[in-house]
Amino acid sequence: MKSIHSADFKIGLLGGGQLGRMMLQKAYDYNLFIAVLDPTREAPCHQLANEFIVGNFKDYDTVYNFGLSKDVITIEFEDVNSDALADLEAKGIKVFPQPKALKIIQDKGLQKEFFTKIGVPTSPYFIVKDKVEMAQKATQFPFFQKLRTSGYDGYGVQKINSKADISDAMEGPSMCELAVPMDKELSVIVARNESGEVKNFPVVELEFNPEANMVEYLFSPANISESIEKQAQELARKIIIELDMVGLLAVEFFLSTSGELLVNEIAPRPHNSGHQSIEGNYTSQFDQHIRSILNLPLGDTAATKPSVMVNLLGEKGFEGPAIYEGVNEAMAMKGVNIHLYGKATTKSFRKMGHVTIVAESLQEAKTIAKKVKETIKIKA
Amino acid sequence: MKSIHSADFKIGLLGGGQLGRMMLQKAYDYNLFIAVLDPTREAPCHQLANEFIVGNFKDYDTVYNFGLSKDVITIEFEDVNSDALADLEAKGIKVFPQPKALKIIQDKGLQKEFFTKIGVPTSPYFIVKDKVEMAQKATQFPFFQKLRTSGYDGYGVQKINSKADISDAMEGPSMCELAVPMDKELSVIVARNESGEVKNFPVVELEFNPEANMVEYLFSPANISESIEKQAQELARKIIIELDMVGLLAVEFFLSTSGELLVNEIAPRPHNSGHQSIEGNYTSQFDQHIRSILNLPLGDTAATKPSVMVNLLGEKGFEGPAIYEGVNEAMAMKGVNIHLYGKATTKSFRKMGHVTIVAESLQEAKTIAKKVKETIKIKA
């Protein structure tokens, strides 16, 4: 049998962004060989990958040909050609997450139907093929229109406040989700390996930038009751098991003002809501992803210290080669861990990096996080 | 001014071994550009370096030409051509550690004389140019013969038990050091940046493999009195300041059975006695090395948890392509962090990787470390 700790065993990674980059940084600890496919020559992974192939991961032939020489294929971005992955799987190549699970997750309509089917609580929704159908079906406002496919990081999501807004809605088949009065957003990352071992990380709490609709702060642990903590963990485990998925799955929740826990979205890969685990937990989400797809024992997910993660988003109104202001000042603060993703150019709200602050108490970490946020600015 | 977070700013690293590899893994967090020079095409750094140049770091022209295009030059191995580095420094290129400090450290005779000059306690010694002079000067036994230059990891060191042993001593100028009855070996890693900021890590305790004369276990924190802790930290700080050195310095100590703290050796780079800091401290030694040579604020060095580091040495009697036994079993244990260095071939006692065990108590970490040591075997 080939040793996974040698270049004889080839892992193929679709996507070469920051999630892939952090996965590669960890993968060197296990001496893994990882080839990366990404359309952008200067993608965050291009310097670290053992092999970096420029190509479109949405194209059937490109993905199929890339995958043929690999032992295991995985992703760091879910909007890839899952038909090619299904055919590679049929040829006996291991693909984790499996194409069947991926196809459900890639389509926000199928995702919602899946939650309903397995009895997982989620906010009320309706599915439409276009704006005409939206106008017919909409009875309650406000709601969020989410394009069924290709949305990410706040793109492909629009708030519809009234009947009049529908004419400005996005074109394309959509899932429309009623806006639930919300107390908090939460996330649980769970992993499952081929042997069926399942382990979840503790619940974390997310605070969004309202303008960019992107995570701005993450708090670990979440400030929630034991009962909600337990419910969220159990729902995450239930979803990965019902999906019969191998790999890492991020499960995002809404906690409504009435105390109801609703599943929002899932992502079958390392996720922004797990970045704090690099310094704040016994095992990082990147380590856990690697362990899950290689059928290694899953790592302990307990937090080692309270932590706060701050996303470094490109300053609004700046576009061009990135200039990092205030990084040195932030580095002087205790427990501050800077992660820059190596993207050459910035634009408004682009994810350019993140910072994790580890401290003896969450309050202390929050105080430092606020200072970090005020200190680091990414301009052009 | 060039931004250090871009490929415009080029760092040159002499040596492409595991210390460089772990430095590179961290350097991606700051988006640094690092070119590596190493004679071995398949060195542990070759896949991760932004640029990997195959060449002899002991050769004047090779080092000089490699260095000319760089903004900062550093090392992960001290036996490099320091004359070339001195000439690069004279041209205005930053070289950290500075060639002047490097020349003292490269020669175990000059090192000892330096300790004596600045009043740092060290074990009694005498310097000889050859075996004839050794026979003349040796009055007390046993002592350790250490070749003045080119020794590392137990090579270039020999125990001389009696007058009769001298005929079997190594050829070459040597520093001969009286064997002091020893209680423990300790280490402190200290860093200094160009602005003069100095920070040291807490003291750690080392346990050697007697046969290979290499570190087998490391314990953090060391089990020593507060007074010894303070003395060791102060001596480490004194040495880096007196050397006027910028960079990271590992200071190894003997604690004699009579309770005397003696400086053994120093190394101006990340060191085996700091590996636990990756998971066990707020800032890792690799992070601190990077911070020091780029004149960034030094990071907090406190331990986050007790930890034990186990070196993974090639099993005695095996030589050839490495086979890793027991890695999966070890990965199932809590707090176990595996680091494989990506060396294609193993041989007796070769450093092939290390494992850091982080736990709530040192005792718990020690228990797991023992199991890890029994579980992982690197054979061929």
Quick synopsis:
2 copies of one chain form a homodimer. The first copy, chain A, has 3 domains: 10-95, Rossmann fold, CATH 3.40.50; 124-178, Dna Ligase, domain 1 (2-Layer Sandwich), CATH 3.30.1490; 182-379, 2-Layer Sandwich (D-amino Acid Aminotransferase, Chain A, domain 1).
Structural features, described:
2 copies of one chain form a homodimer. The first copy, chain A, is of the alpha+beta class. The first copy, chain A, folds into 3 domains: 86 residues, Rossmann fold (3-Layer(aba) Sandwich); 55 residues, Dna Ligase, domain 1, CATH 3.30.1490.20; 198 residues, D-amino Acid Aminotransferase, Chain A, domain 1, CATH 3.30.470.20. Helix content of chain A is 27%, strand content 30%. The first copy, chain A, has 11 helices and 22 strands. In chain A, the strands form 5 sheets. In chain A, strands 10, 11, 12, 13, 14, 15, 16, 19 and 21 form a 9-stranded antiparallel beta sheet that branches. In chain A, a hairpin with a 4-residue loop joins strand 12 and strand 13. The radius of gyration of chain A is 20 Å and the shape is globular. The termini of chain A are far apart. At the A-B interface, helix 10 and strand 19 of A face helix 10 and strand 19 of B. Chains A, B: Catalyzes the ATP-dependent conversion of 5-aminoimidazole ribonucleotide (AIR) and HCO(3)- to N5-carboxyaminoimidazole ribonucleotide (N5-CAIR). Chains A, B: Pathway: Purine metabolism; IMP biosynthesis via de novo pathway; 5-amino-1-(5-phospho-D-ribosyl)imidazole-4-carboxylate from 5-amino-1-(5-phospho-D-ribosyl)imidazole (N5-CAIR route): step 1/2. Chains A, B: One of its GO terms (biological process) is 'de novo' IMP biosynthetic process. Chains A, B: It comes from Acidiluteibacter ferrifornacis. Chains A, B: InterPro entries: ATP-grasp, ATP-grasp_carboxylate-amine, ATP_grasp_subdomain_1, PreATP-grasp_dom_sf, PurK, PurK_C, PurT/PurK_preATP-grasp, Rudment_hybrid_motif.
